[in-house]
Design brief:
Helix content: under 10%
CATH architecture of the largest domain: Sandwich
Radius of gyration: 46 Å
Shape: rod-shaped
Strand content: 35-45%
CATH class of the largest domain: Mainly Beta
Largest sheet: 6 strands, mixed
Strand order of the largest sheet: 5-13-12-7-8-9
Number of strands: 21
Order of helices and strands: HEEEEEEEEEEEEEEEEEEEEE
Structural class: mainly beta
CATH topology of the largest domain: Immunoglobulin-like
Number of helices: 1
């Protein structure tokens, strides 16, 4: 049967009048070449080993290739470095924890690099309230204000007269997709003065009186520390001679009131009042 097919195929080829060359392979593995010219033909045994000719490989285009990050099938997405776009980012100079004294202006700073055409918004976490977008304010509370100098990378939220209720988390948000954000925690504190050891102080007539007032754990020292006796400010040039007040400012502020020799007129309540902070008092009894 195989020989019959071979003869029929050979007869079909021999009818061509143009010169051609064809390689054929029999089941036995022999390879033949037939040369036809001017109607004559001959069949020549070239080799007893068959040869398999593979077509050249076809490589897909980069734009049509479908790959994912693991190499399996999926839509190919060029890496970020291909599109020459630098996304906004937050500088390490952005403080994420800010502590201020109640009543003093609070500033929350957000340092955004490569902002381009994006905008910066400030959002209060407690009620998801958008306070500002760009340089515009979107709250009826006039204490909040967006601040940014033209050309500056720093976008700030200013809060005037901050109260204890303003403590919490605030989000500096950049209008990318998805959005990028940096959370800043605001702590509004109300430092208070303390007069150790207690509310009562006893001193002998004619002895010196030394009262120490301490302001611990304050983010900044008070500008002034005032002393009051019987609701009147104690001063160096008052009727009471020899009075001295010494104040040492720092992370822990101390103020000392010294009266060299007390009399019964020095009895009563003394108040230590750091500016903008909770005051402390002590009752002095002269024996």
């Amino acid at each position: 049967m195989d020989m019959l097919l071979w003869v029929m195929f050979y007869t079909l080829i021999s009818t061509q009048g143009s010169r051609s060359a064809v390689s054929l392979s029999e089941p036995s593995g022999k390879v033949y070449t037939r040369v036809a010219a001017s109607g004559s033909s001959s069949l020549t045994n070239i080799s007893t080993t068959s040869t398999l000719i593979q077509p050249p490989p076809v490589y897909p285009s980069l734009h049509t290739q479908k790959l994912d990050a693991s190499g399996s099938s999926g839509v190919f997405t060029p890496p970020a470095r291909f599109n020459n776009q630098v996304l906004p980012s937050f500088a390490n100079t952005t403080l994420t924890n800010v502590t201020v004294i109640r009543g003093k202006v609070a500033y929350l700073h957000c340092h955004v690099l490569n902002i381009g055409t994006k905008t910066v918004s400030w959002v209060r976490h407690e009620d998801i309230h958008v306070l500002t977008v760009g340089r515009l304010t979107f709250t009826n509370d006039g204490r909040f204000e967006a601040m940014n100098k033209p050309g500056s990378d720093v976008w700030s939220l200013r809060i005037k007269y901050p109260q204890l209720r303003d403590s919490g988390k605030y989000e500096c948000q950049v209008s990318t997709r998805p959005s990028r954000a940096r959370v800043i925690t605001l702590n509004v504190v109300e430092p208070r003065a303390v007069i150790p050891p207690g509310p009562e102080l006893y001193v002998d007539h004619g002895s010196p009186l030394n009262i120490t007032c301490v302001v611990p754990d304050s983010p900044e020292p008070p500008e002034h520390v005032f002393w009051y006796h019987r609701d009147k400010m104690v001063s160096f040039d008052g009727s009471r001679r020899g009075v001295t007040i010494t104040t040492d400012k720092g992370p822990v502020t101390t103020s000392n009131l010294v009266i060299p020799d007390v009399t019964t007129q020095d009895s009563g309540v003394y108040i230590c009042a750091p500016q903008g902070m909770k005051e402390a008092s002590v009752r002095v009894s002269v024996l």
